[in-house]
């Protein structure tokens, strides 16, 4: 059994199912992201774990003991809210001390741990300030220190970087990841931001409509998406319809991959996995190949996006910047390793 186990968790509100049969095993010291679009049930899952919402079904186990019905304050979990939820009338030091005071820690113990917490999040010397006298990033750090000083069994972060500007968010991602690794603290991280999930976590659980669609490493999720939803939600993909023409003949796309019953399916290929080569370059055995005409080449800083019109529709190829982009209007061939193609059946609408 893993350190933290969620088994068959379900939460209903009336007839609506917010979380439907979520099972998840997390190892001690591991950081796992719950990634998904708004409304997919991420926060509800996190709150059930924290003891803030009671599940209708399912169990939760921490370090071998069942915690499903345990009240929140007995679970020893550190929760960082999206809004930080700092107490405005209390100093930074008192905010951080809050959980320790609640647990009846001695004054000297509190003083020591608050200083350690301040040092950990690099806020030494600011303990007398009020939250409103801090920047967003500093408030975020106070919330993190407050959650960590109780030495929680599990750290729960709910979209806790989403109020920061892009640059600060990036810095905090690395900082939180480094603290998480240094302390070896088991962490569950809710986000709808895929970069956050990819950079901050050991594994990612992609949620869709109250369920976990796929769980795996960043590479698993990105390179081997298990479902059509995962392929579309994480990263960018060229979606090429596998269709038959009016005479029932397979179109060009279908000849690229050996699939049966491709009537209602699409081929997914990441733009970064495709390469543009001269039409004169001979096809190699294990590469899929299409030809088309370049519509546009757009320089976007770290790469060039080339939009190509092929027989089955438009697709985008990402070339490293610095490589010579093909001229607009030119005929080109696009190649990619066959193994990089994924085929997903279209969902009935
Ligand atoms: P977001 O990223 O927008 O916070 P989320 O993935 O965290 O989304 P949840 O907040 O877990 O999603 O909500 C899941 C579903 O449950 C949503 O459809 C939401 O409207 C519904 N829901 C959440 N809380 C309640 C509630 N108290 N009463 C009724 N429905 C709720």
UniProtKB/TrEMBL annotation:
UniProt-listed InterPro entries: AAA+_ATPase, ABC_SmlMolc_Importer, ABC_transporter-like_ATP-bd, ABC_transporter-like_CS, Mo/tungstate-bd_C_term_dom, P-loop_NTPase, Transp-assoc_OB_typ2
Keywords carried by this UniProt record: ATP-binding, Nucleotide-binding, Transport
UniProt KW Transport keyword: yes
UniProt-recorded Gene Ontology molecular function terms: ATP binding
Superkingdom of origin: Bacteria
UniProt xrefs under SUPFAM superfamilies: MOP-like, P-loop containing nucleoside triphosphate hydrolases
Pfam families, per database record: ABC_tran, TOBE_2
Residues annotated as domain ABC transporter: 4-234
PROSITE patterns in the record: ABC_TRANSPORTER_1, ABC_TRANSPORTER_2
Family note: Belongs to the ABC transporter superfamily.
Name of the protein in question: Spermidine/putrescine transport system ATP-binding protein
Protein species of origin: Bosea robiniae
